[in-house]
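Weekly modeling sync, notes
Attendees: AB, CL, MP (scribe)

Item 1: holo prediction request
CL wants a bound-state model with heme C before deciding which constructs to order. AB pointed out that an apo prediction alone won't tell us much about the pocket. Agreed to run with the ligand included and paste results into these notes for async review.

Input as submitted:
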Amino acid sequence: MKRLFIIFLFVLLLGATIGLWSYSYFESHEEATIETNRISESSSIPSEAGMFERSHFAMEYAIMPIDEDYQRDLNSYYDNRAFYGAPPTIPHQIEEGGIGANACLKCHENGGFVDKFQAYTPVSPHPEKSNCVQCHVQVKSTSFFVPSTWVKNHPPATGNQALEGSPPIVPHSLQLRENCLSCHAGPSAVKEIRTTHPDRINCRQCHVINEKKTVDIGTFKREIK
Ligand code: HEC
Ligand code: HEC
Ligand code: HEC
Ligand code: HEC
């Protein structure tokens, strides 16, 4: 009887050991899960949230080769705007009756090459503004109705760095421009302002905004009281 009990105990312990071992063995072979949405989960400063909107494309942009034949430049970028900061005109045919996000975002949400226009689609920095033709229109005539002396205002200068090699300041306001990667990265980015480092993601960590107008005050003199 006693011997049977010892054998029973032995078999029970052996069974438990095998059970536990195989459980932990298979557990350790389960695929690791990667948290992909950490950026959106962590709380961000509301005014800077837009900066991270396209950051899931950042690594792709960083390794994408530059297609020199179809790059935009700053001159043509400004030419397509009535004045600095104005919504650009639509330089291509649009579908009859297609005026809103459905008609436009199929191309302008993520960009890409369009054969019939022989160009890369600029990515919209504001896909949430769905009534596109409220602001973007096609050019219907090239002459003025009435002659005028209208001249465009100057865009701000680029290359404003404290020292050679330090990050240039952001020369523009961030209204409608929170989503940095839509203009500064990818194949449709204007060549002069295409960033070499889309993968750094947190742009405003290094690039500070210059929204203040500086006024020349001549030679500074301390007031003597
Ligand atoms: C078939 C894809 C496609 C569709 C649909 C489309 N676009 Fe475009 N869009 C392009 C491409 C490509 C360019 C670049 C053209 C060029 O550089 O000559 C462009 C350029 C533009 C530009 C000029 C951007 C700039 O910075 O100069 C605006 C504005 C624009 N599109 C608005 C619209 C609107 C509004 C709609 C919807 C009514 C629309 N597009 C539908 C592909 C498309
Ligand atoms: C409230 C007005 C408004 C609406 C609505 C609007 N946009 Fe814009 N859009 C602008 C302005 C202003 C700019 C110029 C931004 C700048 O240069 O800072 C612009 C710029 C753009 C550009 C140029 C980006 C670049 O890199 O050259 C594209 C493309 C564009 N918009 C597409 C769209 C599409 C597509 C829609 C609809 C889903 C849309 N926009 C709705 C005002 C608007
Ligand atoms: C609508 C497109 C657009 C968006 C969005 C945008 N930029 Fe720009 N950026 C430009 C243009 C165009 C210039 C050239 C100067 C000008 O015309 O304002 C420029 C210039 C710059 C420069 C100066 C580059 C140099 O060589 O001196 C920096 C830095 C910069 N932007 C950073 C940013 C950051 C950071 C963000 C996001 C918070 C951002 N930009 C969003 C279009 C854009
Ligand atoms: C860790 C700091 C840092 C971060 C983060 C950063 N930059 Fe820069 N950036 C720099 C420095 C430094 C330069 C100057 C490089 C030079 O002069 O050789 C620069 C230059 C630029 C330029 C001028 C063109 C070029 O590439 O030389 C643009 C445009 C720009 N950055 C945009 C961006 C954007 C958009 C982001 C966010 C995706 C960003 N930067 C994030 C440090 C940074």
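Recorded for review: Residues 157 and 203 are 19 Å apart (CA to CA).
Action items: CL to compare against the apo run; MP to circulate these notes.
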